[in-house]
Amino acid sequence: MRRYYNLVRLKSSNHKDLTKCLDLYARNIEPLVRTSTNEIAYWLDNFKKRKDEVFYIFGFYMNNTLIGYAQIVHFTTEEIIFIDYLAIDKEFRRNNTFYEFIEHIFIFFKDNLKIKYVLAEVALFKRNSLPSDYAKTLIRLLKISGFNILKIEYYSPMLGKENFESETECALMIQTPNNELDKIKTETYLSFLKVIYFKHYQRWYEEFLNQDDMNNYNKSLYHLYQNAELQANKRKYIEINGMSNLFNKTPIKVPVLKNSKWKQLSLLVFLIFIISIVLGTGYWFINRKTGVEISTLSFIILPSSIVAVFILALVLEKKEKANLFEIIKSFFGKNQ
Hints:
Layout: E1 5-10, H1 18-28, H2 37-46, E2 53-62, E3 65-75, E4 80-88, H3 97-112, E5 117-123, H4 133-144, E6 148-149, E7 154-155, E8 169-175, E9 183-185, H5 186-206, H6 211-232, E10 237-239, H7 261-290, H8 296-317, H9 324-333
Parallel strand pairs: 4-5
Antiparallel strand pairs: 1-2, 2-3, 3-4, 5-8, 6-8, 7-8, 9-10
């Protein structure tokens, strides 16, 4: 049977399918990062009083069957779209369903709004340095759909006053204009955090927390932001499409060589010189004791060259520890 997809925006809590949408959302979003459905319904009716933001709830349908849910905020002044939640019922997560969902959302916003950046956070739920299966799947799908990861540690704020585990490490994903950027300025990244932390999370909970609880919540937000600011200010730029080892069981640590190429070359020449002296002395000793004639050139230069190749390969590979034969093999392999 041919599939027909349709994206429907729900504009009020009176929409006939809101309960179905929120049920789908509750079934498919991890409990630790799930916002109260009562809060969502409240803001669906009351978000309009916030002049510089627009709140969107979408239902995604296949052949008139509800299969997906999206919760999105548009920050009009900053021209940023923030994807809060995306969910598709498990039985419909096949083939191109997710891509159809994303495509329909992008078409909606492209036709209606002016946008600079699209952001999405994906909770990693790290266990033994590994994201959850849910996080890995969503990240892969978003990357295929044109999103990339900002290469910096990012934490989403706590959801309300008591859901402490919801303050968790996330992958902050971004889609830039035409996906032409491979990095953004640190100032741009910090502006994203101000929008997410203080224009989204802070404003969201102002309606549900009493003054004392809100004061404590604000402190937690400022603490998160200050930690992020300290980390970010160590760099001039934040790289995009990082975390290449995100799904590796054992992260690969590549040491940074602090010596310049000139210092490395000088060290290499010095080592060859020392090795040549040692080997030359060995040649002289063998010749004197045994009288066996061995070519000085082949005896000194050949071993020296092998050792030099080893050292050079070690530098190029940027490894602190390596097997001699593996390094030489990899070095020559790269030049084939």
